[in-house]
Records
---
Amino acid sequence: MSNLFEEHQYQRRLLPWLLVAAIWTASISHIYKNGISTEHKMYDILILLILPLTINLLLLFFRLSIKIDKKYFKFKMFPFHWHFRKIRLNEISNATVKEYNTDRTFHGWGMGIPWNKNYQSYTVKGYKGVEISLSNGKKIFIGTQQPESLIESLNIK
């Protein structure tokens, strides 16, 4: 089935990469100064090597994929979602362009779940997005670089 809309966003912000670089620097510095202790060998390997490597890989492969076809609005935030989450287009009651407020609403980028459990956010890049209202009362904010095209593809009546 052909897609009416498709977008893939990747994590390319500088701040998370600087954080990872700081963790790697601290880890390598610790190993250089102290070596890997025989007493706490597993702890040292886990904290100083495996944890930064895992964070590196998560950042490298972190992406938000959005697809709209004739029946479904689909999104996947990899590596947290292995399969697309599907919402039938007839379950969407409204969609509006919104500007994402990282501090007040969701406290950062990624998968945000604020105090209200009926509202979820999926963002990777930028401050623009579409707030989708579902017929069951739930709302989803999807970050996109093409909010108008996304709304047009939803074809809400």
Note: The first helix runs from residue 14 to 34.
---
Amino acid sequence: MMPSPSLLAIVCARDEAVQIRRCLAGLIAEGFEVVLLDHGSTDATRSIAEDFLGQGLIRIETLPWTGSFSLSDQLRAKQAIVETSRHDWVSHFDADELPVAAPMFERVIDAVAAAAEQNCNCINFHELVFLPPPGRERFGAPEFCGDHLDYYFFQPTYPRLMRIWRRDSGLSNLAAGGHQLRGVERRLFPVDLVLRHFIVLSRASARAKYLPRVFSEEDLARGWHGNRVNIQAEAIDAYFDGRLARADRIHSLRDPDDHRYELSHPQIKHFWEWG
């Protein structure tokens, strides 16, 4: 039996004290080692993350905050970490995400090992966007444990989220906003894994996350963030007021350990675009 490949996850986080413990614990449990990019956090993100140093978190680096959301800056910082890494496989995720391999594999590292054995060099994910129940005005706990059960399958194109790739493959995600990989030879693993995306935790968190966000001029010139640039409070409220049709859109897990996903009705738009 071949030894398991080494697997690195790079996470960029800004003011994610509510999510970061769940994020890091989940990645480490799935077989990742992690480098955290603290993007100028003003809350307890960094101090919470420090609990994981030596326990799967390799180090914490700093990416200064310049006043606007710049995915371009984030991807370049992540690429710099990839270039100094010695891991066999690399990946990137956000603090509100969790990659899982069940039910096909026990852990993500097992899926990566299978991909390596099949001479593949990248892995795609199905994005499941998890939402709190309608009516939740605020998230009252200091930390989120990932217990939302309602989700929709977001897939405007396929394959769309190639988040794991061989470090020596020559593939890059810089030109595609971190979603797709481009290079001379892309050999996609035939099994799609699942990305649980805990996109918002309440009405208040959705408004705080998206309404004041300013995107960098570089990102906008690249044509990125088209579905997030003009989010309106009314569009967020429509979901939390229960005014949106849920049939064939929203599905529910039995519990957080349930991995029986409904993928028959992919959505091409996010919930704030359903009105």
Note: The domain at 7-273 is CATH 3.90.550 (Spore Coat Polysaccharide Biosynthesis Protein SpsA; Chain A).
---
Amino acid sequence: MDTDGNTPLLHQRCNFLQKVALYLALENEERESKDVELLERRINKEIREISFGNKVDLDKSIKRNICKNKKCMKTLTSKSIIIKLKTNNKKQHFIVRTCKNCGFTNRYLLKK
């Protein structure tokens, strides 16, 4: 962990950047501007660099709103993902989220 006391500041910075990226993503759904999309992706890359470079654990809500594909890095909104509910052989339920932009899939276990 970060020992110099900057961890709360880094969390605040990541939260602010995530809000900006989400705002840009929602506004860009109507306009579809490439410049805004590039800015949104750059902000998401910055969030990842902050978390990995400083060993800061991000909140699940921040991590799950960014596509994990390094070439995509889009902010996931309701219009940019496909959500399905799947069950495996052990009767475990999963949420499967697929990015419409790149096709990258994430599976999250639903806990009882």
Note: Residues 7-31 form the longest helix (25 residues).
